[in-house]
Amino acid sequence: MLGPVLLAAARSDSIRRIVAAAPVTRPVVERFVAGERLTESMAAVRTLAGRGLEVTLDHLGEDITDPAEALRNRDAYLQLAAALKEHGLGVKAEMSVKLSAFGQALAGGHELALKNVTPVVEAAAEAGTTVTLDMEDHTTVDSTLAILADLRERFPQTGAVLQSYLFRTEDDCHALAGEGSRVRLVKGAYKEPATVAFQDKREVDKAYVRCLKILMAGEGYPMIGSHDPRMVAIAQELAHRNGRKPADYEFQMLYGIREAEQQRLVAEGHRMRVYIPYGTDWYGYFMRRLAERPANLGFFLRSLATRG
Description:
alpha/beta; single chain; globular; 52% helix; TIM Barrel; 8-stranded parallel barrel
């Protein structure tokens, strides 16, 4: 029951100030966030690449309130693309973007987000990499998938995220399972009403497997975004059943979570991509990580007790 409370806390300015001021917060956050500066994220990319891992980078900055912030986020991603190109890391690192950071929730947000994200996708292509559009709450799905369709006309390698807990996602999987499509499948991390999403974890898991079956049987490139050992095992079995080779799909996990499992998959010859967030706007991301898994919350509380 703590999940909804933590998700609500992620949007609370007062709780943000308390958490940010706690002496223990910084070292704990560093487990899940690569750093606040671009140079720190590049160092993390090089470290993980040296271990045989691939990465996707997310510059944190959502829930913006004006177009100027959207431009700043756009520029941060352009700087990221330039750094990947300069250091020759495009082959190991792609970029993940939340369209809310590009103005999607503002007035005229759909057009604004498309306008701001397009140069980022162009810059990614020049750096030898690509962009995946993160999915946010259910009210943004239609806009996000429409922007995806526009971007894929010029950059067909552009990827998208689908969330299994939404009722609509099986249909979206069918629509995006075609040749050249790249889909990261996750369970979902936003608090959604019962009118649009499964509320029971077992139903979310069942939906995840149904969606995974669709993607694995399709002609696209599935990206299995899960730390759940059962889902990892099921994905491996479905890949085998559909005649997929290791280069035909990949696993994705979050920075700082199940690191031993990440290395195990690499050792077995699988493609393993680590989701690396960085930037000063870490609070919302951090609180969602605590809400997703009791183990994450336990880690944080134990750190509080130890340092207290």
